[in-house]
């Protein structure tokens, strides 16, 4: 199924996003975290570089979740039986999401923690 127009490509992409949002709990949680992050960015004073790191980490997690879902669904399309290679592929995709989330936590701690301490100290 190939998109005939640019707008059709966008529609397909939005359908993928909507599918993941409707069916994947972790994707919804990461979307919520990204919205909270956006509010925090708007509420606090950040340098442009800090905002870039925060947003790139959040988008990296969301993209990883989408790739994970795509890999899982492709494997599910291929077989409904247990296969050790299918397990490895799914586990590696999940590990990629875990690494992306760990990176986001590290960036969050390094960038957000000083700002939060600044707020607390007044």
Question: Quick gist of this model?
Answer:
With 122 residues, the protein is mostly helical.
Model description:
It is a single chain. With 122 residues, this protein is mainly alpha-helical. It has one domain: Helix Hairpins (Orthogonal Bundle). The protein is 87% helix and 0% strand. It has 4 helices and no strands. The mean pLDDT is 96.
Question: Can you lay out the helices and strands and say which pair or pack?
Answer:
Blueprint: H1 6-23, H2 25-43, H3 48-78, H4 84-121
Helix pairs in contact: 1-2, 2-3, 3-4
Features:
122 residues; mainly alpha; Helix Hairpins; 4 helices
CATH architecture term: Orthogonal Bundle
Q: Can you count the beta strands?
A: 0
Percentage of residues in strands: under 5%
Element-by-element helix/strand order: HHHH
* Rg calc: 18 Å
Number of distinct helices: 4
Shape: globular
Which ranges are low-confidence, i.e. pLDDT below 50, for 5 or more consecutive residues? none
| Mean pLDDT metric | 96
What characterizes the major β-sheet?
Answer: none
Q: What's the structural domain tally? A: 1
Question: What separation lies between the terminal Cα atoms?
Answer: 57 Å
Using the coordinates shown, work out and report the CATH topology.
Helix Hairpins
CATH class type: Mainly Alpha
Q: Report the helical percentage.
A: over 70%
Task: Name the structural class.
Answer: mainly alpha
């Amino acid at each position: 199924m190939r998109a005939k127009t640019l707008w059709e490509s966008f529609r397909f992409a939005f359908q993928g996003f909507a599918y993941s949002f409707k069916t994947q709990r972790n994707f919804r949680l990461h979307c919520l975290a990204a919205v909270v992050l956006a509010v925090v960015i708007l509420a606090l004073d950040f340098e442009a570089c800090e905002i870039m790191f925060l947003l790139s980490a959040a988008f990296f997690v969301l993209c990883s979740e989408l790739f994970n879902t795509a890999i899982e669904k492709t494997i599910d399309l291929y077989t409904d039986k247990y296969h050790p290679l299918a397990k490895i592929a799914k586990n590696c995709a999940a590990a990629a999401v875990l690494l992306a989330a760990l990176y986001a936590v590290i960036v969050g701690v390094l960038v957000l923690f000083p700002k939060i301490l600044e707020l607390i100290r007044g």
